[in-house]
Amino acid sequence: MKIYTKKGDKGETSLIGKRVKKTNDRVEAYGTVDELNSFIGVALVSLKVDHCQDVKDDLLKIQHELFDLGGDLANVTAEKKWSLQEDAVTYLEAKIDEYWGEAPALKKFILPGGEPSAAHLHVCRTVTRRAERLTVRINDDSEVSSLAVAYLNRLSDYFFAVARVVNARANKSDILYERGGDVFHTE
């Protein structure tokens, strides 16, 4: 079996239900989700197992969910059976709360950095935000899962929280943005 089909040589690709230009908003959105999945792979291999096995487990789960989301974004058929489910969003919320409680209190903006794996997770955060914007941009005649944007919104928050936890577990401080004042208020 050959990996190339030559079907895309004229700038078109297949969604689930029709052929479109490769510049289609849906293709941009699920392509960015695929890019995010690759960056998660980089983050995964950079994590130290001894203090981040729970994070590694999360990231593997998220990689599978991103494949589900990509399929949902590519689906333009009349019958919609979404693969991504509400429990994926609630799981992320629980993990965000858990990790946010573990990291030191935060008052200022931070710069991506610290542990290499934390920096990779910040890249995942920013790519997630782009995927979210591209998903919101989809305005064709076919429905988008209502969970797609909510999931991506939570996922970017998850990456922010988990990057901070990775630094904390490695006894590295977040890099504070020096020119800014306090923006986060503790209760």
From TrEMBL:
Pathway: Cofactor biosynthesis; adenosylcobalamin biosynthesis; adenosylcobalamin from cob(II)yrinate a,c-diamide: step 2/7. The keyword Ribonucleoprotein does not apply. SUPFAM superfamilies: Cobalamin adenosyltransferase-like (SSF89028). The keyword Protease does not apply. It catalyses: 2 cob(II)alamin + reduced [electron-transfer flavoprotein] + 2 ATP = 2 adenosylcob(III)alamin + 2 triphosphate + oxidized [electron-transfer flavoprotein] + 3 H(+); 2 cob(II)yrinate a,c diamide + reduced [electron-transfer flavoprotein] + 2 ATP = 2 adenosylcob(III)yrinate a,c-diamide + 2 triphosphate + oxidized [electron-transfer flavoprotein] + 3 H(+). Keywords: ATP-binding, Cobalamin biosynthesis, Nucleotide-binding, Transferase. Its EC number is 2.5.1.17. One of its GO terms (molecular function) is corrinoid adenosyltransferase activity. Residues 3-166 form the Cobalamin adenosyltransferase-like domain. It is an enzyme of class 2 (transferase). InterPro entries: CblAdoTrfase-like, CblAdoTrfase-like_sf, PduO-typ. One of its GO terms (biological process) is cobalamin biosynthetic process. It comes from the Bacteria. Homotrimer. Belongs to the Cob(I)alamin adenosyltransferase family. This is Corrinoid adenosyltransferase.
